[in-house]
C-alpha cells in the first residue's frame, strides 16, 4: 500500500471516532453472535491504526492493544478478502506470529473478515478463533461475512448520529443567535431565517440518509434472528438488544424528519373543523389510550389552518398527555377552545405528572427533556408543535392544570391567513 493510500485509510478510520472509545452494546452483541455462529469460544473486533491493533471489544478473553507488527489481522486485512485457516500454525505467513507461537496466544483455528468501507478502505476485521483446529461450513463463512457488514452499518450509524447531533447543535445555535439579534439588527432577520431554513433542510436530508444503513442493519438482524430462533436463547437475547437499539434510532430519525417537515413544508391553510381533526388524531392514538378518558368539547370551532399540520400538532400534544400520566390516578385529558378576538385559544389539559415551572419554556426547545433519565421521547415533539403554531401566526405555552398536570394552550386564527413561508 502506498503511503498516500495508507494516509487516506487512516483518515477514514479516524472519522468514525471508534478508537479507544466504549464499543457499546450493539457492537459487543455482534462479536458475541459471530463467535456463536463460528462455534468457537473467542471473538474480537480489531481496528488497525498507524502502529497498533486495537481490540475494541472481545468475547471469551480480555482484549488489549498490541503492536500492529504482531497482529494476525494486519497481515492480510488490506486485501479485503476473508482469511480462513483451520490451523494457522501450518501457514508460513502466520506460523511464527506471537499469537500462534504462544508468546501472546496459542491460536490454531483463525478466521478474519475485513471491515472495508464503501470507499474501499479497510478499517480492521471481525475475527473469531480457537486454540484448536476447527473448520467452518460455507454457510458459516457467509454469515460471518454478513456480520462484518452489520458492524460497518453500525459504524456508519454512530458516525451519522454524531454528525446529526452536531448539526442539530448548530441549528440551535443559529436559532439562539437569531433571537438575540432580532431587537438590535432587524434588517438581518430575513437572511438569518434563510440560513436556518437551509440548515433545517440539511438536517432533514441527513436524517433521511441515516435511515438507509439502519434498514440494512435491521434486515441482517432479522436474518440472524430467524437463524437462531428456538435454538440459542442467549443469541436471541443479544439480537433482540440490537433490534431494540435500531428501533430507538429509527424513532429518533422519524421525530427529526417530522420536525424538519413542519418547518419547510408548504402551508396550505383552509377552513378546518377542529373537532374532526381532534377525532382523527385520537384515532391515530387509539393504541395508546389504555383506559384513559379523553373529553373533547362539542363546541370546537372551525379554524383557518393547514389540516395536516394541525393533525400532527394535536397528535403530539395528545400523545404527550397520554404518555406522561400519573400511575396513581386514572388518566384524563380535555380538549377545549375559547374565542379571543380574531383567533381561538385551544387548550389540551391533562392530569399527568406535570412540568416544573422552571422548565415550562425550555420544553419547547429542540431536544429539551424534563426527565432525560426516563427514556421517554427525544425532546423533539414540543419543538415541532411550537414550529407548527408559529407558522400559523400563533403562540404556544405550557401551564399547570388545576389539581395537577399540564395544560398546553395555543392560538389559531379564526380568519383567513396571509400566505406563509417556511420558517
TrEMBL record:
CDD domains: HisKA. It is found in: Cell membrane. It comes from the Bacteria. Its EC number is 2.7.13.3. It catalyses: ATP + protein L-histidine = ADP + protein N-phospho-L-histidine. One of its GO terms (molecular function) is kinase activity. Gene3D superfamilies: 1.10.287.130, 3.30.450.40, Histidine kinase-like ATPase, C-terminal domain. It holds the Pfam family GAF. The keyword Transferase applies. The keyword Calcium does not apply. InterPro entries: BphY/WalK/GraS-like, GAF, GAF-like_dom_sf, HATPase_C_sf, HATPase_dom, His_kinase_dom, HisK_dim/P_dom, HisK_dim/P_sf. It is an enzyme of class 2 (transferase). Residues 205-416 form the Histidine kinase domain. Keywords: Kinase, Phosphoprotein, Transferase, Two-component regulatory system. Its main location: membrane. PANTHER family: BACTERIOPHYTOCHROME, TWO-COMPONENT HISTIDINE KINASE. This is Sensor-like histidine kinase SenX3. It comes from Paractinoplanes aksuensis.
Amino acid at each position: 500500500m502506498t503511503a498516500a493510500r495508507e494516509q487516506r485509510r487512516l483518515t477514514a478510520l479516524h472519522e468514525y471516532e471508534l478508537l479507544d472509545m466504549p464499543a457499546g452494546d450493539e457492537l459487543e452483541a455482534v462479536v458475541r453472535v459471530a463467535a456463536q455462529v463460528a462455534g468457537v469460544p473467542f471473538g474480537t473486533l480489531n481496528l488497525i491504526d498507524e502502529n497498533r491493533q486495537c481490540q475494541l471489544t472481545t468475547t471469551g478473553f480480555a482484549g488489549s492493544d498490541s503492536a500492529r507488527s504482531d497482529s494476525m489481522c494486519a497481515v492480510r486485512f488490506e486485501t479485503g478478502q476473508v482469511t480462513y485457516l483451520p490451523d494457522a500454525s501450518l501457514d508460513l505467513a502466520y506460523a511464527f506470529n506471537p499469537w500462534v507461537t504462544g508468546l501472546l496466544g496459542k491460536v490454531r483455528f483463525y478466521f478474519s473478515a475485513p471491515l472495508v468501507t464503501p470507499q474501499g478502505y479497510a478499517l480492521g476485521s471481525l475475527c473469531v478463533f480457537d486454540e484448536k483446529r476447527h473448520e467452518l461450513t460455507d454457510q458459516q463463512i457467509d454469515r460471518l461475512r454478513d456480520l462484518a457488514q452489520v458492524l460497518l452499518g453500525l459504524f456508519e450509524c454512530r458516525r451519522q448520529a454524531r454528525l446529526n447531533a452536531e448539526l442539530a447543535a448548530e441549528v440551535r445555535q443559529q436559532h439562539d443567535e437569531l433571537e438575540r439579534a432580532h431587537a438590535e439588527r432587524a434588517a438581518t432577520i430575513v437572511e438569518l431565517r434563510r440560513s436556518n431554513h437551509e440548515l433545517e433542510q440539511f438536517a432533514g436530508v441527513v436524517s433521511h440518509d441515516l435511515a438507509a444503513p439502519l434498514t440494512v442493519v435491521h434486515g441482517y438482524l432479522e436474518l440472524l434472528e430467524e437463524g437462531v430462533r428456538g435454538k440459542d436463547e442467549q443469541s436471541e437475547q443479544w439480537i433482540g438488544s440490537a433490534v431494540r437499539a435500531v428501533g430507538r434510532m429509527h424513532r429518533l430519525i422519524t421525530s427529526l424528519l417530522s420536525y424538519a417537515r413542519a418547518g419547510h413544508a408548504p402551508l396550505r391553510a383552509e377552513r378546518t373543523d377542529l373537532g374532526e381533526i381532534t377525532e382523527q388524531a385520537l384515532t391515530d392514538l387509539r393504541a395508546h389510550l389504555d383506559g384513559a378518558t379523553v373529553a373533547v368539547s362539542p363546541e370546537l370551532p372551525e379554524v383557518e389552518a393547514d389540516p395536516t399540520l394541525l393533525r400532527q400538532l394535536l397528535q403530539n400534544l395528545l400523545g404527550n398527555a397520554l404518555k406522561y400520566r400519573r400511575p396513581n390516578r386514572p388518566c384524563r385529558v380535555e380538549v377545549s377552545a375559547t374565542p379571543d378576538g380574531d383567533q381561538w385559544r385551544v387548550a389540551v389539559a391533562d392530569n399527568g405528572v406535570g412540568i416544573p415551572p422552571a422548565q415550562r419554556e425550555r420544553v419547547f426547545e429542540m431536544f429539551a427533556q424534563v426527565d432525560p433519565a426516563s427514556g421517554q421521547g427525544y425532546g423533539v415533539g414540543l419543538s415541532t408543535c411550537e414550529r407548527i403554531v408559529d407558522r400559523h401566526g400563533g403562540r404556544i405555552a405550557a401551564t399547570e392544570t388545576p389539581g395537577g398536570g399540564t395544560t398546553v394552550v395555543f392560538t389559531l386564527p379564526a380568519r383567513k391567513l396571509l400566505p406563509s413561508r417556511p420558517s
